[in-house]
Fold these 3 entries.
Entry 1:
Amino acid sequence: MACPSLTRERSFGAPLSLLCATMPPRFAPPHRSTCSLWRRSVTSLSYVPLYQWIDGNKLSGDGRETSDVLNPFDGTVLGSMPHATEADLQAALESSQRAFKQWRKVPAWERSAIILKATNLIRERLEQFATILTLEVGKPLAEARMELNLTVESMVWAGEEAKRIYGRTVESRLPHGRAIISREPIGPVAAFAPWNVPALLTGRKIAAALAAGCSMIIKPSEETPATCLMIAEAFADAGLPAGVLNVVLGEPSMISKTLISSPIIRKVSFTGPTPVGKQLAALAAQQVTPVTMELGGHAPVIVCDDANIDAVLAFSVPNKYFNAGASCIAPTRFYVQDGVYDAFVEKFTAAASAIKVGNGLDPETRMGPLANGRRLQAMERLIADAVSHGGTITTGGKRIGDQGFLYEPTVLVNVPESAQIMNDEPFGPVAIISRFTNVEEAIEKANRLPFGLAAYAFTSTTARANLLADCLESGMVGINTYYFGMPEAPFGGVKQSGYGSENGTEGIDAYLVTKFANYA
């Protein structure tokens, strides 16, 4: 019997790489624009100048240290990124504090209107944004457009939710008294976003904080500064007051230490690897500053022998190699039951080997390069270690060419749990397929690691589905789906995958504090 959830997946729960085809019309790129800038063809667009965005001013590299931003496809230099100085960071902190005092007083409906206007501008500029995103990260244009569509959807939801930040009253114990519980913005926020999904992971932080009435200083990755700056420009063009949103670029350690150590910062939001998250959480603890941590994962996938294997493969392969595997919720450790293991490995290998790898600007490309040289080195190290422990490569396992960071989609089998890749998140285009006999064994293997961001399971049996959903130790569990892209639902992990959530009402709550006022 076909699993109903699998047959429905194509209509509303499609894997990320297929979402472009199912986006509502309001999220589609415009066919025309009144602005000549956005009418230019994609091929004629180029990288944009980089700058610090502080208190509404563009601060270029004059007198500042700079570093190159590289195109991961061929290693060419896209642009020169200026590094924030201590003086820049102090200016950002002061402007953020000053702007917060005014922004928190802006009525929620006006905050919402500015956020929604910014999303409209992003829609109008989507083709340029997508091209810049592809140049920075390397992902195919179709994936870049899809990411921007999801970014807009997440920002729209946060903007609308600004109107629904409610308090409550309770019955007073005093004659003619009032007891009121209100929700107030927590204060200036320091946010740090990674390179792998630079539009979504910056856009949803910004929109949620602004919706709550907070100001924000955000530091994007050194690999993807332009994507964040273009989102900031959309907010500025939408009428966001100067200082409410500042963007600082440069050396991560100096920036994070300066911002988080400042008493001006009342909240920290971080998305990135677990080791870095631990350092920032310790730094924030010195100021008793609340932190939202969305950290690494190593997502298990349990494929039971009663699942529709062809349907599972049709969803699994695109999701595994989406963004060249650089996703914190990417399916990575596939545990496949004995009865379907051999067929699953054979078909997964064939599908992975057929993926066209190349320039993300080429419409024929289905997987772009790794985003940087660090990931290339990590892949080579992890796969070599897996083979040395007895693992077998069924496809891939090699760098493509000698320029840029192209790497083959890779499948590993027979990898023992002692291998490093079974314990450390690969964050790259490699699937590890292991067999299991009974579901309890698979659950134990899935829960073995200290990570718990995303987990997946495929089965057509209701009892098994309930057992897996209940027993998998993860902040998010997908049963017969890989889709977690709903802005109305919380996104976050447990164990060493972090704490707190983005998206959903929980994502707005992260930027609010509760006040109880008792009137006699």
Entry 2:
Amino acid sequence: MNKMRLLVLVLGLHLLSCQESTNEKNTNNSPSETKEIPSKDLHTQCNADSLSIRHLDLDIKVDFISKKISGNATWTIQNETHQKFIRLDTYDLTIDSVLVDGAKTSFVLYPMVHHLGQALEIPIQKNTQQVKIVYSSGSNARALQWLTAQQTLGKKQPFLYTQSESIYARSWIPCPDGPGIRFTYNARVQVPKGLLALMSAENPQQVSDSGIYHFKMDIPIPAYLMALAVGDLRFKSVDARTGVYAEPPMLDKATLELSDMGRMVNTAESLYGPYRWGRYDVLVLPPGFPIGGMENPKLTFATPTIIAGDKSLVNLIAHELAHNWSGNLVTNATWNDFWLNEGFTVYFERRISEAMNDKGYADMLWELGYQDLVATIDDLGKDNRNTWLKLDLTGRDPDDGLNDVAYEKGALFLKLIENNVGRARMDTFLKNYFAAHAFKTITTETFLSYLQQNLIKGDAALEKKLNIQAWVYGPGIPNNAPRADMERFNKVNTTLQSFLKGTSAQDLTTQGWTTHEWLHFLRQLPDSLSVSKMKELDDNFHFTTSGNSEIGAQWFIQSLKTNYQTAYPKMDVFLSAVGRRKFLEPIYETMIKTGKKEMATATYNKYKQNYHPLAQMTLDKLVLAK
């Protein structure tokens, strides 16, 4: 072992002393002789807590043949504390060269750390202003899904999109990949001619003849909000500041479905202050998108599964819009504080939905969310540490915290506060909270301090009623959890009982039911329901062939439980096309729980390549685990 390799090894071990190391990989060139400065965010290896990383100039090319993004990322920094190096996050990137203020320099790519990737360390001087990394993405880039033309709706051109949340931006950009680190960016992106490129920035509305696009985001954002999509896309306006991007065969249908977007933005502003991001557009992606929506600034990425034809699922857009206050405007400092993004956003989403519909509509959303939370906690265990709002994700992938606890328990906590202080006081508090913390990051503890100072204000009786400790630092669902009015669902329950007691499906009172009433009905069906009863429901309400993804997915789960095999061919088609984890995971899990493991394995192996790498990560553990 020569001296250089020994030095690299010693520094690598020093860097990884508090973290799990896997899949060691050799470093490049000589390392900087400096000590590790521990970061409060355990999911980034960047040292942005010691120097200022202000701006990114990104110049990349998208190559569909090699399935790689390549180019350079130039970071503008300010080294006020005279650090001897800058350290950035990477995952499966090939680093070709590094330049500091225009001069080529050495660098170190440390060994792989489980979940976190490889730290890229670059020596700098106290007056260093720019660090340029020439690089290319790898075959295991977790953020990227490369689709062939056949995997798209139009079947004419390939497609690429990113999903950077939570810590996957580092797989396509060497970056400070932590939610508490904000920066502005400009980008130049070259794509095959005829394709449109879009980012979480100011976007074009027409295809460029050259295949070269320029982007600008002048509001500082964290890396998880970096986004890119490239494909056969077109744009259509909804109103002066909102519009829809989609593949041509989807564009008119999606624009009609989302025609209330402008009113939605106005409603949100009336609740909690101005929308600060300029335009609000939505990109409807191909069906392999692994989540419902991603709140990328200026351009929400959305699953096509919300396009039901009757606007019944567009509350997901209300959710992503609300993120432009809770998440994009005021951001969780670490992934342990994730509920500050999602809990606030679910609460805000429900307020938008209530304002645009009525209280009864919102009550149904609250109750379905409560059912989801109960199911999640039953699965995790009511005393499980993962059911706290304040998470502890030490040594784990932050995606482990992406469940209904952060979303629904967080929202219920805010609903509890509203119920105890009144809606007017709650709205004033939240409006001031968003204004006071705009474009900043926040921890759970900082929020609780703000809550004490600006709402509770020493009111011991109110503090006792809220029982904050149990909600934030305790497991399960506290016994003071609010419940929604069940008026509309009580009618559904009555109809269901009538059916189970012998009333024919065609005689059930279901006129005017929304998707939410049908979901509640289907969720309450007994697992022991006979095949003949399933067929009767299907013959009358056509669940197997439903174009509504929420209803279809719930029906397929019920069909697996009751062995209603008539639905299986359509379920197979659904699983071949839809990549949303919300639907995939429970369907595959139900196959396994009902003794159909061979079906699950065969189906997953057949359609795995249609799913995003993040969905594959989840399903590999579920379906392929021995």
Entry 3:
Amino acid sequence: MADLIGRPLRRREDHRLLTGRGRYVADIPLEGALHVAVVRSPHAHARIVSIDTGRARKHAGVAGVFTLAELPELRGALPPPAVAAAAVKPYRQSALADGVVRFAGEAVAVAVAADAYHASDAAAAVDVEYEVLPAATDPERALEPGAPLVHAEWRDNVAATVTLGHGDVTAALARARLVVTRRLRCGRLTALPLEARAVAARWDPATAGLHVWSSTQMPYGVRQRIAEALGLTLDAVRVTAPDVGGGFGTKGPVYPEDLIVATLARRLGRAVRWSDTRQDSFVSTAHAGDQLHTATLALAADGTILALTDDFLIDAGAYLPRGAVVAGVTAPHLLGLYRVPAFQCRGRVVVTHKVPCAPYRGAGRTQSTFVAERMMDIAARELGLDPVELRRRNLIPAADMPYDRGLAYRDGMPMVYDSGDYPALLETALKRAGFDAFRERQRIARQQGRRLGLGVAAYAEATGIGPHEGATVRVDGDGRVSVIAGAPAQGQGHETMLAQVCADRLGVPLESVGVSSGDTARFPSSAGTFASRVAVLLGNAVAQAAEAVRDKARLVAARALECDPGDVTVADGRARVKGAPDRALGLATLAALAERPDVVRALGEPGLAATRYQSPESVTWAAGVHVATVEVDPETGAVSVLGYHAVHDAGHEINPRIVEGQTQGGAVQGIGAALGEEIVYDAHGQVLTGSLMEYALPRADGVPPIDVAGCDSPSPLNPLGAKGTGEGSAVPGPAAIANAVADALDGVEILATPLRASALARL
């Protein structure tokens, strides 16, 4: 089958996953494995006075109860990672609390037993005495003199600061016809993948090696931290991410449990496993999205944007397991798809006594888009313009591509939008949403006492960030083809997408290609799966490796068929001589020939295999426009999403069916962030929304059909022309829905998410 790239093929992994044949961490057979239960702090900030494990050790089936004193390898084992964006003040987090707990849910001790039930009983019997300390729970108050310090060695609670700017903001503000300033807040979120986090480990005394299975997006990062903590070489630690039931960014950090389970497996000489519970995940898995912005937008009389400024705080919680990366993403994405001649931004990352935060699908883009797009609607109404018209006047035109922002992105490279037609994205989205007829529809509904509204939100998304990703393509002895990569999948459709690329470039049937990934023993290097990067980096690496294998196959076939390599074509898994279709050899035969000494001398290595890496100079820029239509009950404030239309630029789409699914899933997460999802704390640092009874995930009956269309422009920055699409669709939902609700309520100002019905009813 030729020309596989661009075809909307069915996802090949779905049948296995939907019929219960997936293999998750909990499915790994480890005979006689011990189970771990974690003792967690009930306090947000406290000094540990004493830990008494005597009662717990007497419980039936208990193999041990451990504190940091018994597991010194865990002390200081989790420093903040060095990631591009901003330097974070130094600290050393211990995988078990080292004398002080800094959030309710922090691990204090662990119990190990023959099964999860006995381990849980033993953990409940651990007696911990605490001296409760004042807690910093509000990021603004955490900046005040005398506020409780999260890290006593710091002089304040600011972990990092990001600044970004260009142009003369002061002059722009002076000549503006309209200057709008607002404070906007985005609520705290968490991801709740179907598979909660899990870790298992087995120590092999014969090889002095450790095999760890982790439900992670970054197995190579987990390997690095485990090796450092245990004083092992990297090749002595193997980390495998099997099937992973969703990640959304929150399975990106290295967690204390990864190190705890690995340490116990070596210490006890037994297989050890741990699985999070849904209830504990609210206080053990990273949160995200908690931001407060003070933004100013300046416009000329005709609506032309003159300047944008923003000063924002990110409530990072107690630790920074992914550094200050979210601040480095938030700041540049405030610019969206618009021409902004003057821009100034400062973002401060503030630590508090809450669960640590990490990137979650969108990673700061959702919040920056909410700020920018709400400010556009507010300014449009003050100027007496339709919000759509204001966008039309400020979108970057296609003729200006590539568009240099005059800034450096967080990777240190110039921030240049590589391709796109943003006005076309807007007009396509409006047409699909029936914008031209909507005002009449809205007027008629208003006469009937119904409040309808339409909201638009545009977004830009930097995708495909480095440093690199690589893949091996290999023809096996039976003629089948193996693609081996490091970056794991969590449901995105990598297996299908990478097989498509390989089959297309190598010239083999799709069904002959197998894909494996996420195992540090099978591929040497990978940064992981995050930041909408796998299609761009790994897709291109597979393409290049497949092309290299195809060229090798042509050379081997030319020697065997006594012709020039230029006269050999590879298609349908066979090498043929042009003009002589009967002169052909299958890949299995060629793979065997490639092992012969004379062929090895000619090729420089045995076999039909190649490894290639894609290391981009900088990111590609995806984009999109979403349009939401809503109805608001004026008495109760309840919001019903009537329609949702998403138009995106994902570059050259490798598999449009996968892109559509990613877009629909992201849109649902955006609806959830807009209307219900929020982690709420009380003044003492206790989570009030710690179960699915209080944390309001979107339900099927609250999600309309999501219309998806591509308006794509291939990226000139990589051979496939691909741009990432995994995160962008989750970005504009809160802004589009908030704009639609404001439209339904005659322009009432909505300055926070999620939108609470009780609050809307009071407006």
